[in-house]
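Example (one chain per record):
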Amino acid sequence: MCEAKVYLKDDPTGRPVMEEVILLQPEGEEYLLVSLLGEQKRVRGRIEKIDFLRHTVYLTTDDRP
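Predicted structure:
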């Protein structure tokens, strides 16, 4: 399967925002995350890193370039 885990880089807990993500869609300054089971969540930030090998996406809320 090709689901991903989405993390907030700035979150000190290190827990994923959502697991089994099958859709990550930009919507203005947010991203719509949709899980395999249809759960939806909107997360504010920007993409910091996508690791296809580990199926992980890292978002950051840091607005600095």
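Caption: The mean pLDDT is 93.
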